[in-house]
Design a protein that fits this description.
about 40% helix, alpha+beta, 6 strands
Length: about 280
């Protein structure tokens, strides 16, 4: 018994029996549907003659469960033959581009924090040096006085540390405004193939200056509030876990979403959009 060759990714007749097409990603079905681009024509009624029309073979019946690879029919025009298996859900924008998952967004945020932290320390280098020296002094005091609380107020730490923090936040704000508008995302997002787009329009290449400024401003307000209490940042960054459209606070107020441009499904959708624009 030879193994079946899986068909390439693409849109096929919905094995659930609807009038739409469902996307096959190469190994399994997704939950992404679209209207048929070229509906199959209705068969023309047979002309009335004195002879009975020859009997035709019955149309294949779709199983009640579905998900197996579609079998391409070549030039016959037959619908794909489908067999039971499972499919996975991919959340998309209204125009069909997959949204970035929480894990990829969290990783991109981590990359941004590391890079922007280094940039902030360089921009505020004199205060960074003061913070480092104070940390060394407090560490030495702690080793000499085990079990006692370090008197932070006695060291030159709090003021230069605050300056470094706010310089870093300012650098992040400026970088976000420029990068999201000009390149479509922050450094971490670009490295991981993520893009910031207007809500439900994943095929739009860039957001406006106003949207980029508003989105970055909301992010800055959340981070500034976090200097006093931690929960604003935590809630905002964890919000995609329960938000139906995977949005943080700065996404919701600026009316944006984060999409992914990598993976078979995303690449197929974006390639189709580029072909349609030619």
């Amino acid at each position: 018994m030879t193994s079946q060759t899986l068909p390439p990714p693409g849109w096929y007749d919905d094995p659930g029996g609807s009038s739409q097409e469902r996307y096959w990603e190469g190994t399994r079905w997704t939950k992404n549907l679209r209207d048929r681009l070229d509906p199959l024509p209705e068969p023309a009624p047979a002309a009335t003659t004195g002879r009975a029309a020859p009997a035709s073979s019955p149309a294949p019946q779709l199983p009640q469960q579905f998900g197996a690879p579609p079998q391409q029919s070549g030039a016959t025009g037959m619908a794909p033959v489908l067999m039971p298996t499972r499919y996975k859900m991919v959340r998309t924008t209204a125009d069909g581009v997959p949204l970035a998952g929480f894990g990829m967004r969290a990783l991109a945020t981590l990359v941004d924090w590391v890079l922007m932290g280094l940039l902030g320390m360089l921009l505020a280098w004199p205060w960074t040096v003061r913070v480092w020296r104070s940390l060394q002094q407090m560490t030495a005091w702690s080793l000499e006085n085990p079990g006692l609380v370090v008197p932070v107020q006695d060291y030159d730490y709090l003021t230069p540390f605050s300056i470094v923090q706010y310089v870093t936040l300012g650098a992040c704000f400026v970088a976000q405004v420029l990068l999201v508008k000009l390149l479509g995302g922050t450094v971490g997002q670009l490295l991981l193939g993520l893009r910031v787009v207007p809500s439900e329009t994943g095929l739009t290449p860039r957001v406006s200056w106003r949207t980029s400024l508003l989105r970055s401003g909301v992010w800055l307000a959340v981070m500034a509030a976090t200097q006093m209490v931690l929960f604003p940042m935590m809630i905002s960054y964890l919000r995609p876990l329960w938000h139906p459209r995977l949005k943080t606070w700065h996404d919701s107020l600026a009316d944006t979403q984060v999409i992914t441009t990598r993976g078979t499904f995303a690449e197929s959708v974006l390639a189709g959009a580029r072909r349609a624009q030619k």
